Amino acid sequence: MNKKIKIPKDSKAINYKTTDLIREFISDRGKIIPQRITKSTRKKHKLIEKAIKQARLIGLMPFKQKNW
After folding, report:
1. What is the CATH number of the domain that holds 52?
2. Vertex 50, ends 29 and 63: CA angle to 5°?
3. What residues make up the domain containing 51?
4. Which residues contact 4 (CB under 8 A, 6 or more apart)?
5. What is the DSSP string of the chain?
6. pLDDT tens for residues 14-50?
7. Which one of 23, 43, 48, 53 has the fewest CB atoms closer than 10 angstroms to its CB?
8. What's the number of domains the chain is made of?
9. Is residue 5 part of a domain?
C-alpha cells in the first residue's frame, strides 16, 4: 500500500480530466487513499478528492471496482 505517488507542484494540473493522475490516489477497492499515506498537503489532498468525486459523477471513473 505504501507506493510512491508523485504529486504535481502545479495545483492546476489536478482536475477531473487528468484521470491517469487521480487514479493513483484510489485503492484497489475504489476508496480514496488517505492523506497520511500519500504524503500530500491538506490543500492538495482536498483538490485530489474533489477531482475524484467530479470524475465519478461525470462518469470518467467508476464508483466501485468491478472485481470486488
Report:
1. 4.10.640.10
2. 30
3. 11-58
4. none
5. -----PPPS-GGG-STT-HHHHGGGB-TTSPBPPHHHHT--HHHHHHHHHHHHHHHHHTSS-SS-TT-
6. 899 999 999 999 988 889 999 999 888 999 999 999 9
7. 43
8. 1
9. no
